[in-house]
Amino acid sequence: MRYDEQMTHYLLDGHKVTEAAAASAWMRYSETSTYDMPTSISIWQDATTREGEESRAKLRAARIEVCLEDDEDEHRPPETHPHQDQTENN
Predict the structure, then answer these.
(1) Looking at CB atoms within 10 Å, which of 4, 28, 33, 88 has the fewest?
(2) How many Cβ atoms from other residues are within 10 Å of residue 14's Cβ?
(3) Does a structural domain hold residue 61?
(4) Could you give the CA distance from residue 50 to residue 71 in angstroms, rounded to a whole number?
């Protein structure tokens, strides 16, 4: 199942970009790699599925992150709670 645009976002060099910008960067990268065009398109499409971790790993080689709603927390800085009860640690 492909995630829709509202559930997926894209990072290029760590900066949030549009799907079109990320796809363009992937196509430029794949032109210089061993992937032919149909394979590049297939990898891109697979990367937007829950099962597409292997494809997302290939995109990371091009400094592109496909962030699905499920893994969004992985790309968010950890939250700090300055008023957290310190007695929990004692």
Answers:
(1) 88
(2) 8
(3) yes
(4) 10
